[in-house]
Specification:
Layout: H1 4-15, H2 21-29, E1 34-35, H3 48-62, H4 73-98, H5 105-108, E2 120-121, E3 124-126, E4 132-134, E5 141-146, E6 149-155, E7 158-163, E8 176-181, E9 185-190, E10 196-199, E11 203-208, E12 216-227, E13 236-240, E14 243-247, E15 251-256, E16 263-269, E17 272-276, E18 279-283, E19 287-291, E20 299-302, H6 305-308, E21 315-322, H7 323-334, E22 337-340, E23 348-354, H8 359-367, E24 373-377, E25 380-384
Parallel strand pairs: 2-9, 7-9, 12-13, 22-25
Antiparallel strand pairs: 1-23, 3-4, 3-8, 5-6, 6-7, 8-11, 9-10, 10-12, 11-12, 12-15, 13-14, 14-17, 15-16, 16-19, 17-18, 19-20, 21-23, 24-25
Helix pairs in contact: 3-4
């Protein structure tokens, strides 16, 4: 649900014909709802006695004195109806006056001449021989063959490694490739064993063209969602920021950006084992393991897994998160720089917003809370109280 403040603002904009199509959709479906965790729904009207007294006075003024025949019955009721309409207008003005001031988007988000659009399918592939291939804009087809594996761009945003019939596991040297996703990018990858990987912006995955030996090991920086192909003889291992995630076949998300203090592994299906030095933790579906190199042990908690993988499904999902963390995500996806004004205090938000709107619409959704405002200059966003 959205707050009364948001509903009132959007409802009045809609009556005035000023709502964008997205705001109309928000008003109708509440799909993109941003709420402050401490919203108070019970005290925002206030002064009920004052409104009641105004109503009585207006109605009294509208009814003629007894014995007066100067007004027809119809005219009396027209005056009463008009008084009620006037009262409702006054009530709305009083209600609006009691709400926090929420400036219009045009007053707070200074759009650059060119809109800041959302990210898209962008990636760079570094082959084992050092050759770098820019994948965005490249035609679909075969990019090369390594250790009996054909590398194909199968469609926009998807790279696939297909093992050939004559490709054999053996003791040959591993040919490592790296796929790098810039800020403002995302990409999908299918490894030679059938494992599927979704990579978020500002991420990179190092992996062999073909897995050999008794395990399947990859190295991650940034964020990725894995659907690991089952193979009980070869555990799948993700090495990331001083820890490892080991599975046989499962679905999980790993968030491990260098500018985040904590590595978070969220399990959707199957089972995983987290390990670092002498510490271990086992996760069950619906749990998240947090690893901080400054802490002695893993922290395991139950979470809403949909929030962890919302990015993969095209959304920003904020679950009572501070604005600094939220703006990091926005910065990576829209490839913008974010600064905070000196007077800004830490605030938390919750809600869901599409990742495929231009940045001004995402910021405007946050502004509807009345607790944060933004100024955009070029590709620089300033966060203000």
């Amino acid at each position: 649900m959205i707050t009364k403040e948001e509903f009132l603002i959007l409802y009045k904009k809609n009556l005035a014909g000023e709502c964008t199509p997205e705001e109309k959709q928000l008003l109708e479906s509440y799909q993109d709802d941003i709420v402050m965790p401490d919203d108070n729904w019970e005290t925002d009207l206030g002064e009920k006695k004052r409104l009641h007294s105004i109503l009585k006075a207006k109605l009294a003024e509208s009814i003629p004195e007894k014995g007066s025949q100067s007004l027809s019955a119809r005219y009396v009721w027209l005056r009463v109806a008009a008084a009620v309409i006037i009262l409702l207008s006054i009530g709305v003005l009083i209600w609006r006056a009691q709400l926090p001031a929420v400036p219009r988007q045009s007053d707070t988000v200074a759009l650059s001449p060119q809109k800041i659009l959302p990210g898209g399918n962008k990636a760079y592939l570094t082959m084992a021989n050092g050759k770098i291939i820019t994948l965005n804009g490249l035609k679909n087809g075969t990019l090369g063959t390594q250790t009996g594996v054909k590398i194909n761009k199968v469609k926009d945003g998807v790279l696939s490694y297909n093992k050939q019939d004559n490709g054999k596991d053996g003791a040959q040297e591993l040919a490592y490739n790296t796929i790098s996703i810039p800020r403002g990018g995302q990409y999908q990858l299918e490894l030679s064993d059938g494992t599927k990987v979704w990579l978020n912006s500002a991420s990179a995955l190092k992996y062999p063209a073909a897995f050999t030996g008794n395990n399947r090991k990859v190295e991650l920086s940034g964020e990725a969602y894995f659907e690991v192909a089952k193979d009980r003889t070869k555990p799948f291992i993700v090495s990331v920021n001083g820890m490892s995630v080991q599975v046989l076949g499962t679905h999980f998300n790993v968030m491990a950006y260098s500018d985040e203090k904590v590595v978070k592994t969220t399990l959707l299906e199957g089972a995983v084992k987290l390990s670092s030095n002498n510490q271990e933790a086992l996760l069950k579906p619906g749990q998240q393991g947090a690893f901080n190199s400054q802490q002695p042990a893993f922290s395991v908690s139950d979470v809403d897994v949909d929030d962890a993988v919302a990015w993969k499904n095209g959304f920003f999902a904020f679950n009572n998160e501070d604005i600094q963390t939220i703006m990091k995500r926005i910065s990576r996806w829209y490839d913008v720089d974010v600064v905070f004004s000196e007077k800004f205090k830490r605030k938390n938000f919750g809600g869901t917003v599409s990742r495929f709107k231009d940045v001004s619409e995402v910021l405007h959704s946050l502004e509807l809370t009345g607790s944060v405002h933004f100024k955009t200059e070029g590709r620089r966003i300033t966060v203000m109280p």
